[in-house]
Amino acid sequence: MRIVIVGGGRVGRHLTERFLQQKYEVVVIETDRRRCLELADTLAVEMVCGDGTEIAMLEEAGIRQADCLIAVTGVDQANLVAAQLAKRRYQVDKVIARVNDPRNMETFRALGVDIPVSSTDTIARLIEQEVDLSQMHLLATLNKGRASISTVNLPKGSALHGKRLAEITWPKGTLIISVVRQDQLIIPNGFTVLQEGDEVAAVSEGRSTRALVKILTQMEKDR
Question: What global pTM score does this model have?
Answer without folding.
Answer: 0.61
